[in-house]
Write a structure and sequence with these properties.
The structure is a single chain. By secondary structure, this protein is α/β, with parallel strands linked by helices. It has helices at about 10-25, 40-50, 60-75, 85-105, 140-145, 155-165, 185-195, and strands at about 5, 25-35, 55-60, 110, 115, 120-125, 145, 200-205, 205-210, 235-240, 245-250, 255-265, 275-280, 290-295, 300-310, 315-320, 325-330. Strands 12-15-14-13-16-17 form a 6-stranded antiparallel barrel. It has a 5-stranded parallel sheet with strand order 3-2-1-4-7, with helices on both faces. It has a 4-stranded mixed sheet with strand order 9-8-11-10, with no helix packed on it. Helix 2 links the parallel strand 2 (about 25-35) and strand 3 (about 55-60). Helix 3 (about 60-75) packs antiparallel against helix 4 (about 85-105).
Length: about 325
């Protein structure tokens, strides 16, 4: 029986992934990354006990702070919009699973992400709940040892399976917060970590429309709370150096050209110096336009066939060839 190390969280997805793997004949060993508090830890332990899975609780606070929390803080202070999961997966979560696998002599690791893997490439999961975007910066050595047992499942079916197994997390709501910010807003967490910029001007062109309450409360594409001549305005840029927001009308949010830095590829190499692809600039299923990608010294220049809504500096951009995930980088 082949061993596999599974990232077993406090939610429903990884618990059902454990059962699917066991039904396929694997000997499953769980690792719970202990960062979300006592209640979450108790849910993970209860799932492991119900499933009969050995569970190691791993304290990753130091790695998470270095690779995720501090970069997250610096990004907001610079007016960027980071996605911490994109960085956490290759830098913290998957290395933790691989360390445990090496300790046990296991070749394989697994997670409950809704995506597919063939040992060399990653692919979109079921269209209703695809999470491939979150894996855009995984490295070849991580992908080569990865199993993703939920790739073909719908979330509704996964919850049904959890209920059939008697798991107490079967109806637990999906978390809509980052694991290290549970119970707080982004702004509250940031303010607890550092002195944040105070109020500043919000401008539409040269006109000051109002005052914002601090740039860390806003992201590019976010709606401005007040109307301008009975029209809605949106944040189009965040200028940290002057502590100002740049506003625009809805149509002005859309772009066809932007750059990606720190670009990496799932299988280790780009399809070429210039290639056709599709791009996703946020965790959404409905906006993945075709594009032309031209590699540059520091990443890539992307030109989309159709305009993309509010590509935000600091946010990840994932590139696809059909359903195959090529890789990703960060919008600049």
């Amino acid at each position: 029986m082949e061993k596999v190390v599974l990232g077993l969280s406090d939610g429903v997805d990884s618990a059902v992934a454990a059962r699917v793997l066991m039904d396929r004949g694997y000997e499953v060993h769980g690792v719970y990354l202990d960062i979300a508090g006592a209640d979450a830890r108790a849910d993970a332990l209860a799932s492991a006990e119900r499933l009969g899975v050995e569970l190691q609780v791993a304290d990753i606070h130091e790695e998470l702070n270095r690779h995720v929390c501090e970069p997250f803080l610096r990004a907001y202070l610079a007016g960027r919009t980071p996605n911490p999961c994109i960085g956490c997966n290759p830098e913290v979560k998957f290395p933790s699973l691989l360390r445990r696998a090496d300790e046990l002599g296991a070749r394989l690791i697994a997670t409950g992400h809704y995506a597919r893997c063939d040992g060399q490439n990653l692919y979109m999961g079921n269209p209703d709940n695809d999470q491939s975007y979150m894996l855009a910066r995984l490295r070849p050595e991580q992908v080569s040892r990865l199993l993703l047992p939920l790739g073909a499942y719908q979330k509704k079916r996964v919850r049904e399976m959890a209920a059939e197994m008697g798991l107490r997390v079967a109806s637990k709501p999906d978390s809509r917060e980052n694991c290290f910010i549970r119970g707080q807003t982004y702004a509250e967490w940031l303010e607890s970590r550092a002195a944040m910029p105070g109020p500043g001007a919000a401008r539409l062109g040269d006109e000051v429309i109002g005052m914002h309450e601090g740039i860390h409360h806003y992201t590019v594409g976010q709606r401005w709370p007040e109307l301008w001549h009975e029209r809605r305005l949106y944040v189009s840029a965040i200028h940290a150096e002057s502590n100002e927001l740049e506003l625009c009308l809805w149509d002005d949010l859309f772009r066809r050209k932007f750059d990606i830095a720190n670009l990496s590829f799932v299988n280790g190499s780009a399809p070429g110096n210039e290639f056709r692809a599709a791009v996703r600039v946020r965790h959404t299923r409905w906006e993945t336009p075709a594009c032309t990608v031209v590699l540059t010294e520091h990443g890539a220049h992307v030109v989309t066939d159709e305009p993309v809504r509010a590509p935000a500096p600091g946010q990840a951009a994932a590139l696809y060839d059909g359903e195959r995930l090529l890789g990703g980088g960060y919008i600049v």
